[in-house]
Write a structure and sequence with these properties.
about 180 residues, alpha+beta, Immunoglobulin-like, 2 domains, seven-stranded antiparallel beta sheet, about 35% helix, about 35% strand, elongated
């Protein structure tokens, strides 16, 4: 009998170890899944936190008033992206800015923020300079096809103009690689 008791104790100990290992294995698998999820979400460029969001929220009334005044100006903007990139991998972006009478607006201080919708964390804000043709121009790295968001703010004297535009751009990624 003592041998049978000893064999039964050994089987019970083996069963306890096996079930403890199964439960511990589930915890380990869950920890690995959580670690992978955390790494993926922290490195996802499609998820973006808006910089200075709290300050923008506090200045909302001023911004809304500025945008209403912008609409009353009657200005229009036309944004054109060059399909070819230069030797540095940059694309020319030309912005036409016109007043209510469709006359070009000169000497405006222009800032444009652009980003690919799938990579909002990679937003880039650039200062556009007026070129010889009376249009404003910047160069930006734009590798990915798809929806691009443009946010333009132009100021001339006390007049401030806001313009937002989304463009579907194709043929930007000629290499076949994701941008």
């Amino acid at each position: 009998m003592p041998e049978a008791k000893h064999a039964e104790t050994m089987q019970e100990t083996a069963a306890r170890l096996r079930w403890t290992a199964v439960i511990a294995g589930f915890f380990i698998i869950q920890a690995v899944i959580w670690a992978v999820a955390i790494v993926l979400t922290n490195n996802d460029s499609s998820h973006a936190v808006v910089p200075d969001y709290d300050q923008k929220g506090q200045a909302w009334n001023e911004t809304a008033a500025e945008r209403r005044a912008s609409e009353k100006l009657g200005w229009t903007a036309n944004i054109a992206v060059d399909p070819e990139e230069d030797s540095l991998g940059l694309r020319a972006i030309r912005i036409g800015l016109k007043d209510r009478q469709q006359q070009p607006i000169d000497s405006a201080d222009m800032e444009i923020t652009l980003f690919h919708r799938a990579h909002a964390a990679r937003a880039e804000t650039l200062h556009a300079e007026q070129d010889n043709s009376g249009r404003y121009a910047i160069k930006a790295r734009m590798k990915s096809d798809g929806l691009w968001q443009f946010r333009l703010r132009a100021k001339r004297g006390s007049d401030v103009f806001w313009h937002e535009e989304t463009q579907q751009l194709n043929g930007l990624n000629k290499s076949g690689k994701a941008g």
